[in-house]
Amino acid sequence: MDNKKRTIIQVITTLIQNANFKGFFTGKIYTGQTKQVCVPGLNCYSCPGAVGACPIGSLQNTLSGLKFKFPYYVLGLLIFFGTVLGRIVCGFLCPFGLVQDLLYKIPFYKKIKEWKGDRILRYLKYVILVVCVIALPILYKLTPFFCKYICPSGTIAGILLSLADHSLFQVFGKIFTWKLSVLVLIVICSILIYRPFCKYLCPLGAFYGLFNKVSVISMKLDKDKCINCKVCYNACDMCVDPSEKTNSAECIRCGKCINACPKQALSMGVKNK
Fold it and tell me: What pLDDT sits at residue 208?
């Protein structure tokens, strides 16, 4: 699948997840029945167009309740998405993934593919998953730490809501200023580096990445066809070498390596038993 087709799929899935179009004009959050269902990607519950719930936000809200409740529904749904799709969710279904892809298309004289500290910093998203999404919400009730202090999708949702309802500008405080600074940093980095949020900060990508090696839909390498030319590695913006780690946790399964392979040694489909 070429990049144009993938972008079309990303746009369509983003519109489906944000189908409450009138919310962008009224500034009112949709509260219908579908809001009880989690979407697979990072899409803030508070976005005026959102018709579903964000799984990371839902997980934190369950864990940070006044009475501890095990998040059976949210965790079960996340495991389902992970075991079936893995990080295909990141490559095709996540609205903020689309935002980063579009930002990276902005011309700049030099893009940064690899840099010192990149590999170490990739572990940060796992720390955020464990600490900000799970541990801190359990310890500090009614405080969804990732949503409150980090999530760029939530900041965009706040901006969109305030554009429709200008009175919201009056309640913005230091926390919003902090989150706006985080968003601006991510936007700037996204122009220079391919998907920095996915690589370094996203707890949802960290979770799905744990399932990449076992998910039903996975990457496949025909070792008989592979000539170890590393064309696939050079084509990968996530800096994954599919010829060495075919189902790396860092792979978002965008398909660029499949298109680049001169011997058609790579493919994506249902995992063989």
Answer: 98
Report the DSSP pairing between strands 217-221 and 266-270.
antiparallel
| pLDDT per position as a tens digit, 33-72 | 999 999 999 999 999 999 999 999 999 999 998 888 899 9
pTM passes above 0.85: yes
